[in-house]
Design brief:
Chain A: InterPro entries: Cyclin-like_dom (IPR013763), Cyclin-like_sf (IPR036915), Cyclin/Ssn8 (IPR043198), Cyclin_N (IPR006671). The complex is a heterodimer. By secondary structure, chain A is mainly α. Chain A is 55% helix and 5% strand. Chain A has two domains: 218 residues, Orthogonal Bundle (Cyclin A, domain 1), CATH 1.10.472.10; 138 residues, Cyclin-like (Cyclin A, domain 1), CATH 1.10.472. Chain A is globular. The N terminus of chain A is likely disordered. Chain B has one domain: Serine Threonine Protein Phosphatase 5, Tetratricopeptide repeat (Alpha Horseshoe), CATH 1.25.40.90. In chain B, α4 packs antiparallel against α6. Classes of the chains: A mainly alpha, B mainly alpha. At the A-B interface, β4, α3, α9, α10 and α12 of A face α12, α13 and β1 of B.
């Protein structure tokens, strides 16, 4: 299905660069060269595809570690911003997806200093996709205040959004708004104008009710699913897989942390049939594995919503490491099948740093799939 | 501007108050800016409510809601205590006790506004009262709390409206002319709306509904973590998987497979001849 046609035709200076990478058809009229590109929206990517994309956007300049640190900082900033503006937490899902997707296809070295502006733009797009409309001005004003005086702890009282310690001047707000509009266009191109999305939260509640989970277990699964939104899992797995993986991880964690016998007895008799929920064993294994890696990183824990809820004296890192060691046996997955196989074309421009000149000099057809 | 001038200006603002966000915000900002005159402004609100028609009265009630929300957010909570104390009086003016069915025109909008004020002032039983309102039940308990007294009055009025409507449906068909009929009693004239006012009211209600929808998604949290209470609210929104959900899951799996299968193909980009 064709989503958008962007017909601008004129001479194109970078055309030769693309010629080397694609089977190309050159056409010129009256001295002008015309180019048409079809861009497929790939909502979900494999680990190999993510690594391949990061090769040009992050690895090239040895920026990966800086990106990881910046991402942690931005996720914390987004947490404060979402809560201060009273948004439902589900908006974090699309926000984080867009932010991570942006830095797959764009150089981190070039855009790292705009990370917070990009995060605000992702949130702005996400709230539109979730029908929680606010003006970009409101986001910019509160974001500025949070950047300059962030809350110290997650236990801090939430200030009213009008209670601003640092007020941004009107001309600066206009400047920021222009940046948001600029990045909005870049992000939309990165996702091929594909606005389809399903909420993890909706599936999680429906699954937990179908499984008649105890409310405590439901709450634990929900906190895990919110944490999962901050990981690369959302680039790889569909929302229903993440929802079920959160329940699976909660089932593993609960007896290790809490002692409520009613819940533990209920969990013992809980029979999780992945196929009933249209999920595959390997998908769940990969997701749970990656979520555990998030909890194993001590630097990530201040960002975790689950961590706030856990007993303060719990050695959570050690607990997760032990559980992770047992994970392949738990899922009964043979060693040779612990990673999904995929072959990708490394020369494909899809995995290269995005060139926004294409849209200026030719036509891009954004399509949902390549049928 | 001295106190007398501010009073006159505030009174004029209230008399022409519209239900739009801009109009209500302007009026709220003016009141907050002159919060040292809160006693004066409070009496102006009560006076103006007696002098205007029902359309403007509901707009003023909307403004009261906005003023309570803004007042609660600033130091000293100006206006909040006085307005909360006089809520039953204000509500009696907005939904007047009268035999005419026209006096009930503000009841539904008042319900939404009162529910919002109750959330703002953290009244624990709000959900229960909202349920009672929808079931046309009354509140029997005796209370001195002004917010609870307001609910008691509103629930009483709703039950009365329900019984009157039920009776009128049984006895006679509604005469459309009676809707625009002008009452001879000058007091009752304030409750009578002209055709133009009815149209304006429809537009205002649409605007109010739109604004209510804008705020429906808001989640107020005390700290920067996620509470069990928030989860329970989300939990109430969905039931277990139904046939439709299974269809959706099947479709989602197909979509995911498509994205996965696409990986084996050589190129996500294809260049065509223009």
């Amino acid at each position: 299905m064709v989503l958008l046609v962007h017909p601008i035709a004129c001479s194109h200076s970078n055309f030769i660069y693309h010629l080397r990478l694609f089977i190309t058809l050159k056409h010129s009229t009256m001295g002008n060269e015309f180019t048409t590109v079809i861009q497929v929206s790939k909502q979900f990517l494999s680990s190999e595809e993510i690594r391949q994309s990061q090769e040009s956007s992050l690895m090239k300049d040895q920026q990966y570690q800086n990106y990881v640190l910046k991402k942690q900082e931005v996720m914390r900033f987004l947490r404060f911003l979402i809560i201060r503006l009273k948004f439902p937490i589900r908006v974090l899902q699309v926000t984080s997806y867009l932010f991570q997707r942006f830095f797959l296809f764009n150089s981190f070295r070039k855009y790292s200093s705009y990370s917070h502006e990009i995060a605000v733009t992702c949130l702005f797009l996400s709230i539109k996709m979730n029908d929680c409309i606010r003006k970009s001005r409101d986001l910019i004003l509160v974001a500025h205040d949070i950047r300059l005086s962030p809350p110290l702890n997650s236990d801090d009282a939430v200030k009213d959004e009008s209670d601003l310690t640092h007020i941004l001047a009107e001309n600066k707000v206009d400047e920021q708004r222009k940046k948001v509009l600029y990045f909005e266009r870049l992000i939309l191109e990165c996702i091929a104008f594909d606005f389809r999305h399903n909420n993890i939260e909706d599936y999680l509640i429906k699954f937990s009710k179908t499984l008649s989970l105890h409310p405590q277990m439901g709450y634990l699964s929900w906190l895990i699913s919110v944490d999962a939104m901050m990981t690369e899992v959302i680039l790889k797995q569909s929302p229903h897989v993440i929802a079920l993986s959160s329940i699976v991880l909660a089932k593993l964690l609960y007896p290790e942390i809490f002692t409520d016998k009613t819940v533990i007895t209920e969990l013992d008799s809980l029979d999780l049939k992945y196929s009933k929920f249209y999920c595959e064993r390997l998908q769940i294994y990969e997701s749970v594995n990656e979520m555990m890696e998030f909890y194993m990183n001590k630097n990530q824990l201040p960002n975790s919503f689950l961590f706030d809820y856990l007993p303060k004296d719990l050695k959570f890192n050690d607990l997760v490491i032990n559980l992770k060691l047992e994970l392949p046996n738990h899922f009964d997955i043979p060693p040779n099948k612990r990673k999904a196989e995929a072959t990708i074309n490394k020369d494909d421009l899809f995995y290269k740093e995005r060139d926004y000149e294409i849209g200026k000099a030719g036509t891009i057809l954004f399509v949902y799939n390549n049928d | 501007m001295d106190a007398f001038e501010a009073r006159i200006h505030f009174s004029d603002m209230l008399k022409i108050l519209m239900p739009s966000q801009q109009s209500v915000t302007n009026c709220t900002m003016y009141a907050i800016k002159n919060r040292h005159l809160q006693e004066d402004f409070h009496s102006v609100i009560l006076e103006v409510l007696d002098a205007v028609d029902l359309n403007v009265r509901i707009n003023i009630f909307q403004f009261v809601d906005s003023l309570i929300a803004s007042g609660s957010a600033i130091e000293g909570h100006p206006f909040v205590e006085n307005l909360a104390q006089d809520l039953p009086v204000i509500l009696e003016k907005v939904v007047p006790v009268n035999n005419s069915s026209k006096a009930f025109v503000n009841i539904h909008s008042s319900f939404h506004i009162l529910a919002h004020i109750s959330h703002e002032l953290q009244l624990k039983d709000t959900k229960e009262y909202e349920k009672k309102f929808n079931l046309n039940e009354t509140l029997d308990e005796e209370t001195t709390d002004p917010l609870k007294r307001s609910w008691k009055f509103l629930l009483q009025q709703k039950a009365l409206l329900h019984s009157e409507r039920y009776a009128s449906e049984e006895n006679a068909e509604l005469n459309p002319e009676s809707l625009t009929e002008v009452d001879t009693d000058p007091k009752l004239r304030l409750y009578t709306l002209s055709e133009q006012q009815i149209l304006a009211r429809m537009e205002a209600d649409r605007e109010r509904h739109k604004r209510a929808k804008e705020k429906l998604w808001m989640v107020t949290r005390e700290s920067y973590s996620l509470s069990l209470n928030e989860f329970e609210n989300i939990n109430d929104r969905f039931s277990s998987l139904q046939d439709e959900d299974f269809k959706e899951l099947r479709e989602l799996k197909r979509l995911v497979n498509k994205s996965f299968n696409g990986r084996s193909q050589n190129s996500e980009y294809k260049r065509l001849k223009a």
